[in-house]
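Worked problem 6 (solution included).
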Amino acid sequence: MGSRVKLTTGMGAIELELFDGETPVTVRNFLDYVKEGHYNGTIFHRVIDGFMIQGGGMDAEMNELDTEPPIRNEAHAAPSNKRGTIAMARTSEVDSATAQFFINLVDNDFLDHRSKTPAGYGYCVFGKVTKGMDVVDKIAKVETGPYGYHDDVPLEPVVIETAEIL
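Solution. The predicted structure is:
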């Protein structure tokens, strides 16, 4: 069994099991952010029902938090972006993931690694929800709208109060 992390949100707890064996760089990166308290007080700042919920990089005022340097993308070794998996968010740069992550609400196979090209590299799945998928589904249903340059932002902040290693 892999490392386990609990995200306590204002809407309930989400427990994760991480894929230490398949995606060790990504898991270590995520656990380092958990240990340093980075996720405490961050929000799910992008929520798209029928797709995914994204968080880990913004505070409740939508200020982007400082991060460590980006990590190598391990999507080539990762499982598929299925419902209930957690993956690293990134920019169009393949190796740009830092602290932001998303939880898949449905099977998003189109986000999987297909080729070692920028367009086909995919998004690295590094764990799965083991408890609290009902909380994830509840978060998916919150009302969203635009905020500054961002779309799909919850009108009421969905806060990750604490993230802890179990």
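Discussion: Residues 24-35 form the longest helix (12 residues).
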